Structures are given as structure tokens and as C-alpha cells.
Amino acid sequence: MESEDVFRNANDRIADKAAELAWSDPIPFLCECSDIRCFARLELSLDEYGSARVQAEQYLIKPGHQLPGGIILEQDDRIALAEKLYAGQEK
Question: What is the reported pTM?
């Protein structure tokens, strides 16, 4: 499992717990870039997070962070939505 998938799985658990406990927005999520040392936080609503999860190969990263083999689909000053172009291949 690649580091971005580990961060994504952690974010899925954060979203589940936030919904369960009815946390107020914004919710702190982890950057899903490929740097295993990254501890950047993304502040999102549960709706924003859910929208990013529509496609299986989309990842939420901090603007300026990298997702090897991916392209940026959308970006603002808070978050970038990246999509992997080569899912499951070695780096």
C-alpha cells in the first residue's frame, strides 16, 4: 500500500467518526500526498470531503505537494484535488 493510500484510509476513518459524532465544520483531514513525513492538515467540510471521494483514484493534497503519476484536477488556496493516472503501478 502506498503512503497516499494510508493517508486516504485514515481520512475515511476521520470522516466516519466526524459524522458519527456530528462534529462541526471544518474537519481536520490529513494531506494525502506521497511524502510519508507530511503532517499537513486540510480543513474541509464533510460535504467537501465526500465530493472528493466520488472517484476512487482522487486524492486530497495540500497545494504544492506531490502525487507521483497524478495530475491536479482542481486547486484553490486550501486544497488540491489530484487524480492518479497509473493506479497500482510501481513508482
Answer: 0.86
